[in-house]
Amino acid sequence: MASQLSSQGSRSSTKSRGRRRTCFCGERSVLWPSSTAENPGRRLWGCVNYQIGDRCDYFAWAESEGQDPQIQRLMNKASSLKQELQKAERKFALALAVEIFGWTMAGLLLYDRLN
Length: 115
Known about the structure:
- The protein contains three helices and three strands.
- The protein is mainly α.
- The chain has two domains: about 1-60, no CATH class; about 70-115.
- The protein is elongated and about 75 Å long.
- The model is unreliable at about 1-20 (pLDDT under 50).
């Protein structure tokens, strides 16, 4: 992929300005980090089929995170999901504490009745 990315860089730069998010095989493109020496970690939109054999070699450099609305939307969604996960973890911890307390109290009551 490294040689393909560097050889297609100028061709795809105009496509990234046009906000093309569908690759040549008609699938939605996905966000990948570049693995080339020239652009390590730079984000690009590429074919969803890249790592499963069939691919159309489509890619377009992603704009900076502050400028690309789709990246910003995905980052906002990830942040929202992280907050929801934290809320769920707190609710689970509270439910677990209540359950442990309930079983402890039940055990104490049962112990008192038996003695």
